[in-house]
Structures are given as C-alpha cells and as structure tokens.
Amino acid sequence: LLKVLSHIDSILQSPRAPPSIFRPSKGPVQNYIKENGQGCGFEHLPLTIEMWADQLVALKDLHRSLRKLSLELLPWNTKDPQDNRESIRVEDLQLIVDAILEELEHKEKNSQTQSLQTLSAIVSHFQKLFDVNSVNGVYPRMNEVYTKLGEMTNAMRNLHELLELDSSAPPTVVVDTVGKLCDIINKNVTEQVQQLLGTQDIHSIINKLEEHECFFPPFQALIQDLLCLLEISNVDDILPAVQNLK
C-alpha cells in the first residue's frame, strides 16, 4: 500500500500535474508517515483523488452538453464513437469542439460569400428598376429617387391635410377623393354655364354658341370702324363721342 501511495504521490509531484494539485502538508501531520527518514505527505491524497473523481464526473457532464450543442449545430453528424464508453477523455471533448469551430468558420465564410452575392443582386435589381446603365450611376440615381420620394411624401401629406383624410389613408383613397372633388367642381361649372346661357340642355348651348359666332364678328368689325372714325381707342369713349356729334 505504501508503495502504491508513493507512486501516486510521485505522479502528483510530476511536472505534468497541475500546480494546484500537489500541496505538501504542514504542521504535525507532516510527520504522520515517514519511511527511511523521508516524509511522503500522503495525507493530501484522499482530497486530491476525491477532486479527480469530481472532475471525471464533471467531464462526463461537459461531454453530454457538448454533444447536445453539436447536435444543434451539426444535426447530420449523429455518430459519436464515445457515446458507449465508460471514461471520457479530454481529447474526445476537443474533437467535438474542433468540429463545431470548423463548422462555424465554414458558415461564416459562406455567409460572407452569400452577402456579396446578395449585394450584387440588389445593385443589379436597382439598375433595372431605375434604368441605371453603370454602377457609378447608382448613387446619383439613389439621391434622385430619395429627393423625389421626399417631394411625393410632402405632397401626399399636404393632400391628406387639405382633404381632411387620416394620415394612414393609402394613395388610392387620396386619388379617389380628388376625383370626386373634380367631378363636383365640373358639375358646378356645367350648371353655372347653363344658368349663364339660360338653357338646360346641350343642344340649346350649341345653338347659343352658333348665334354668338354669327353675331360677334360683324359686331367686332363695327366697333373697330367706330373707333377709327371717332379717332378714339377705348370702347367706353364711343357713346360720349357720338353724343358730342349731335
């Protein structure tokens, strides 16, 4: 037993052991077991072995967590030769971590490539939509589109306010409202023309216009002759000038 303990103690003191594992005993316990005048410090072995046992259990828990993570990131990689093993080594965990890291790096490279392809497709689509012949013309056309969009937005906002529409009303509602307003205005104009001409039907309006075309040219010629004869330039001066001739 002493030989086994000495062997374990030498392992704990080896350069490969973590620095925090081997702690030489102090005080009276240091002389608890001595052989050939040399202290072995075996009293710390139970605590160290107990800690190792806890670490081995934690290693299995860590392996289980890494496997779950691996199945989430690498669902196609369901084979794990370590599933049925009693002991789990650090190398096993390192293999899982390396596989996950490799997959993440691969996805990152693919995402960067896909991003470049997506950006190129967006630029090409913009060129087709707005008739841009070269990539250099994309930025000026973007500025132009942005300016036009701002003008249209302001115009639509003003129309919403003038027509007393809700700000959330779509453009189709604005157009329909403007159309109805134009119909009302045109109807009122037609009624005013009918009242002015003293008629309510289109044929009477046509007759009135024909009469006006027949009457107005001779009347205009007569007025012009009177202006020349009386040597005046204003129509309002014709009547006073004729009265003075009496």
TrEMBL record:
Tree of life domain: Eukaryota
InterPro entries: ARM-type_fold, CEP70
Keywords associated with the record: Coiled coil, Cytoplasm, Cytoskeleton, TPR repeat
GO molecular function: gamma-tubulin binding
Primary residence: cytoplasm
Location of the protein in the cell: Cytoplasm, Cytoskeleton, Microtubule organizing center, Centrosome
Entry GO terms, CC: centrosome
GO biological process, one term: regulation of microtubule cytoskeleton organization
Function description: Plays a role in the organization of both preexisting and nascent microtubules in interphase cells. During mitosis, required for the organization and orientation of the mitotic spindle.
Subunit structure: Directly interacts with tubulin-gamma; this interaction determines centrosomal localization.
Entry protein name: Centrosomal protein of 70 kDa
Protein's organism: Pomatorhinus ruficollis
Classification of source organism: Eukaryota, Metazoa, Chordata, Craniata, Vertebrata
